[in-house]
Fold these 4 entries.
Entry 1:
Amino acid sequence: MFTVKVLGISASPRKGNSWFLLDHALEGARKVDAENIVTQAYSFRGKKMGPCLSCFKCVENGGECIVKDDFQELRELWVDADVVLYSVPVYHMGIPGQLKCFIDRLGNSSVGYYNFVTPRRMKIIGAISQGMDLYGGQESCQIFFLAHAALMNCMAVSGDGTNSYIGAGGWTRLSLEHNAMEKLYSEGERDVQIAVKAAASVGQRTSEVAMMVKAGLHVHQEKFINDPRYKPILEKIARERKCAS
Ligand SMILES: Cc1cc2nc3c(=O)[nH]c(=O)nc-3n(C[C@H](O)[C@H](O)[C@H](O)COP(=O)(O)O)c2cc1C
């Protein structure tokens, strides 16, 4: 058996609706296998995440970004995770700038970090987005995460069926309150029930696929061990197995 590390990232500057849906997604993940799925929730609340300066120093110095803020901590968590679940508020029909800053720097610093080898990261990416409006930009966010997963050599996984076409989406019925979804959920409001169900299924399916991918990589490691693009993930799996035994 392999431990699956699930990192949930709530990219709102407050612990509000994104956090609420993320919580349900992480619960869905743990239900797959309470013993072997380890979840961690990260919130952007109070965090400083400056933009990429386009200096390309990270390419020269092993991936180290010269801007020192909360990027370094989150990058370590991201690199170590098997599943990354993003939960975002829609901002201006897209993802919040804070998270875009992180992703820009993550992508560029990877070039130096892996010494120009583009690793087959094999991480499973799931996404949840919610906004105040019904057609407020949730799909734009979800499509961004599909592109992000592809660009990072990861795999995007959605939830189940018609509740979750390309991930989970929700709206607060025009409320701007941080606890709008929680309130609507407790009142039994239909759209939030669907958003919660979809978030839980994103959590569940991403963990299931990660389990299969890790086990599959282990079984077939002989075939890929000499390919530098698989080295980081195969070494990570070997390290984790040593720690567990
Ligand atoms: C800067 C900003 C831009 C926003 N833009 C949109 C938008 O384009 N579409 C939308 O539906 N809601 C928009 N909203 C509303 C938030 O997405 C909504 O309040 C959400 O529930 C906040 O999530 P949180 O509680 O996790 O912070 C915006 C809010 C802010 C602060």
Entry 2:
Amino acid sequence: MKKLLFFALAALLLVANTSCKRTVEGESNKWKANKQSVEQMRANYSNFGAAFDEILEKAEAKMNEAESASSEDQSIKLMAEANGIISSSFVNKLKNFDRKVNDIEDLAAKAAQIPGDHSDNDAAWVAKNSADRAIRDARNSLKSAQISNVAAAEGVVSSAMQNLERAEKRLKDVISKTEKKIDDKEKAEEDKKAQEEAAKAEEEKKAEPVKCGYCGKMNDPGAKECGSCGAPIEG
Ligand SMILES: [Zn+2]
């Protein structure tokens, strides 16, 4: 058990170490992970094959250079470059695509559940529908686009992501507008209640007998001067 703990600690230290300083092992692990994820995406988006091949070819050439580098530092540098190439822009965006879709679906569900009035519900419904459509369109464009190189891949993925981001913004706007309206309404109700309570307190005060400041006699509510000494009564 102690031994296990020791190894766990050693592994943790190793991870912590590689995260702050680049090592051959760290870059090589990164490379394996990157390559695996690219291969997975390549299977999902077979129409992007040419673009993935272009990137893989470039990145693998860098990895080969790294293997025959003159020093370890040079080798690490080249491996880091290879990792940069294999996870470059369109690959990264494509990797984030599903997460973005999930975020938008969560927002759409939230917008649909938010308790608003008729016009809020209509706006939420419209935003949710357009988000559903944006997701569908973005998925279709990713699946059906004819991609012949990295530049084409960049264009298609960027525009799909932009459509998603627009839909996301629309949903966020609808939600925050409705939430603000609900807040405003609550605040207005609180203000109204406070005003009513103040008015009630004022009424009650008027109905109370008033004490003369000079002689101390109690006078009828609303009396202007003391019935006993004639002093003016300040209300
Ligand atoms: Zn008096």
Entry 3:
Amino acid sequence: MAIERIRVRARSGSYDVLCGKGVLARAPRELSHLGKHTKVFLLSSPHVWKHWDKKLRRTFGRDAKVILFDDREAAKNLSTVGNVCRQLVRAGADRQAVLVAIGGGVVGDVAGFVAASYLRGVSLVHVPTTLVAQVDSSIGGKTGVNLREGKNLVGAFYPPRLVLSDPRFLETLPNRDYRSGLYEVIKYGAIGDHALFVYLEKNLEKLLRRDAQSLAWIIARCARAKARVVSLDERESGLREVLNFGHTFAHAIETVTRYRKYLHGEAVAWGMIVAAALSEKVAVLEPAGVARIVRLVLRVGSLPRLPQVSAAKLISAMRADKKSRGGRLRFVLARGIGTVVAGKEIPDSVVGAVWAGLREDTLLNWPHDTQPLTR
Ligand SMILES: NC(=O)c1ccc[n+]([C@@H]2O[C@H](COP(=O)([O-])OP(=O)(O)OC[C@H]3O[C@@H](n4cnc5c(N)ncnc54)[C@H](O)[C@@H]3O)[C@@H](O)[C@H]2O)c1
Ligand SMILES: [Zn+2]
């Protein structure tokens, strides 16, 4: 498949997302088109670096300075941001520096926030290396870190100057992280792309085997969808909210488990199941639609069990989320496969009832527990 160039419009300037096998090799040329810069800093994590060290050094040259940091979700915080900024000062990064974030969503969100705030803003390039990052987090300019009190509560909108998305990186991605990305892909089908949803229903096994052609197809399709949505609504004043399908609940279970039990995509998987159940409860989606969403999500693989917490604790975590307004819980609900309605306010009692039902439901007997996160 040829390399595809997708344009994203942003207030502070438009940028391109280049998708396709071998795109990394284009980095030096593409970087030179961004204008004059002093030094290139490669911001990544030891996990990513150990697989791609040689290739990245060859691509970016000896002069590029490497800064590695812990990319566990539990380390996606202000302390990591501070450490990276201090390393940049010590390495002499000035306002014409370019930061290249090479990694998954955590590296991208942390490095993005560093780029937004270091010397009040330096150039940022994303090189996403996970499926989540290639289809979602590297596009759209959201950056930020977690607080104990909640997910992504400190951050900035800071679009990159360029995104280089090479599916070759996925060859070294652990299975669980790969599957985690497939849930975000299902999300794109559920929120606005019926044909993609059907494609996933038909080709999931191929994708689980990481079939290169199918993978290239879904990555470009999701990247185009994300680019379209964020170009129309960069600051999430309307349309962009649809991307939060499954995320109100996802962020709450990530928070109550202190970011240690679920990969982000796994939390989104549970979140989509809950959103589908809520959609049925308030009569916007029929049971057949709910079953299709739940079935596809569960076919991807086993999920870590839901946390043993009360509805009250869960609801209070949801209330602290950015998506709640004036303390009222808001959800993106499914109306059909490929159509959603955003900003639906749902009473606590309904959310509590769905949560209670879900814990007793037969659903819980399908997935099995996976190992707790050790990284
Ligand atoms: N900014 C946004 O718009 C946005 C959108 C979606 C998700 N996110 C955020 O992204 C994060 C999740 O990102 P993720 O799913 O990419 O997970 P991740 O960044 O935690 O990466 C998963 C794991 O894979 C490793 N890894 C990454 N690339 C690898 C490769 N090519 N080979 C081997 N190992 C590799 C990482 O070191 C890490 O251990 C969450 O914090 C979420 O909130 C942000
Ligand atoms: Zn997400």
Entry 4:
Amino acid sequence: MKTTIYYFSGTGNSLAVAAALARELQDPVEIVPLAARMKQRRIEVRADVLGFVCPTHFLTIPGIVKSFVGKLSLDSAPYIFSVVTCNSQPGRGLFVMDRLFRRKGQSMKLGCAVDMPGNSLIGMDFTNPPEVRSERLNNSRETIRRIARAVRERQASAPEGTDSPGVRLRSLLMRSFVRHIYRPAGAFRTGESCSRCGTCARVCPVGNIAPGESGPEWGDKCLYCLACLHWCPRHAIEMKRDTVGRLRYHHPDITADQIAAQSGVR
Ligand SMILES: Cc1cc2nc3c(=O)[nH]c(=O)nc-3n(C[C@H](O)[C@H](O)[C@H](O)COP(=O)(O)O)c2cc1C
């Protein structure tokens, strides 16, 4: 029985959930960073159980996850499950995953959301205060156990979240606003406390940051995962003025090296 879990993660929540699921599933599980495979045109998968874990971005799944699923070539009909981590609003991401698999003639049997500490600092978003973070991390353990049980028993259920016209519209507006008006990718800057350590460049899952002699330089492939901003050991990175004085976050059990390992860029 072969189980493979593909993950994408900016601040470690989704990686921590993937790792915890793997432990709960007991069978040998291969955990694979999907960002490292993006250069391949076609990704052949041979697994009996196939899982995906990624964050919710703007009420849906990140574009890189959609592209990855589009490249998959499945030679059988594995038991497929997806998990989105979120800050209380999973939106339509699991419905989007479900549709992507149906287009491939496959069926996603289970789609679950895990409430985790939030990491968005875009616009009006704040990360959660420490007591909310602890509560969410504690509660997530039971949610992960429940999902693992469902996978072990090969359960089938409708995706969690909602795909209502209102959510679709909000998701579209949020993505358009960020991409065309707010444009965080052009708005990162470092303060004087930047030590040129290069952590931001290492943790970027798509290699979008050049460490540069006078400080990091961002390219135009930003996925808005905010790994650079949250993993900076000196909190020296700001995005517009919006992030000044706001709490940073990364999952307490995940390291910057683990996030860096997912890119396969360096
Ligand atoms: C750009 C961006 C958009 C986000 N949008 C949502 C959202 O629509 N709903 C939600 O519940 N959480 C949202 N979040 C929070 C993340 O989904 C959540 O913190 C997730 O667990 C982060 O996972 P990671 O640490 O694996 O990157 C967003 C985060 C970012 C960076």
